[in-house]
Amino acid sequence: MADTFHTQIVSILPKLRVQALALTRNRAQAEDLVQDAVCNALNARDSFIPGTNFAAWMHRILRNRFISDLRKQRATSDIDDVPGELLSSKADHEDRLAVKDLGYALARLPDDQREALVMVVLHGMSYQELAESTGCAVGTAKSRVFRARRQLEAWMTGELPEDDGLRQRASALRNEVDRRKMMGAATRSNGLRG
């Protein structure tokens, strides 16, 4: 089993690096995160059940390690700062600028959406595998990928503002539900009086 376990770890390293880079947005931190996740996996190899989804297990370990590290850093630094190199561009070529813009847009996505998008689009994970590795429902996984794609498209094409009306539609729906509840309560109240 040890040989198979080690072979599986080696084969998943490239995908773990991509996920770690999407989470940390820094190559050196991503490499450290992958190394820490692999160490955690090696220490916990007895808890892995052969025949189950090894990739999802490893992605979950990496994600949990990232969250643990993030909690430790939160007390000492501001994690929401966007690195300066993402805000500037030295390239003159349009393609290079587009890639930088995409990198900036990816960095702006909420962590859960960015992670979901990277795991499905770059890693080729199914929604089921994504749900297993992130500990959410399949519908939530699909929603995260959909929202990430939609927001990236809006930012990259400039066709939609950052707030494209979803809040207004949700607010209008809530108002309608509240109005109907009030009408129902008034109707019941009038029925009791009569």
TrEMBL record:
Q: Which residues form the RNA polymerase sigma factor 70 region 4 type domain?
A: 102-152
Which domain of life does the protein's organism represent? Bacteria
Keyword Acetylation among record annotations = no
Q: Does the keyword Transcription apply?
A: yes
Q: Which residues form the RNA polymerase sigma-70 region domain?
A: 13-75
Which residues fall in a coiled-coil region?
Answer: none
A GO term for molecular function: sigma factor activity
Keywords noted in UniProt: Sigma factor, Transcription, Transcription regulation
Q: Which Pfam families match?
A: Sigma70_r2, Sigma70_r4_2
Any GO BP annotation: DNA-templated transcription initiation
Task: Enumerate the InterPro entries for this protein.
Answer: RNA_pol_sigma-70-like, RNA_pol_sigma-70_dom, RNA_pol_sigma70_r2, RNA_pol_sigma70_r4_t2, RNA_pol_sigma_r2, RNA_pol_sigma_r3/r4-like, WH-like_DNA-bd_sf
Recorded hits in PANTHER family, A to Z, give: RNA POLYMERASE ECF-TYPE SIGMA FACTO (PTHR43133), RNA POLYMERASE SIGMA FACTOR RFAY-RELATED (PTHR43133:SF25)
According to its UniProt record, which protein family does this protein belong to? Belongs to the sigma-70 factor family. ECF subfamily.
Q: What is this protein called?
A: RNA polymerase sigma factor
Origin species: Acetobacter oeni
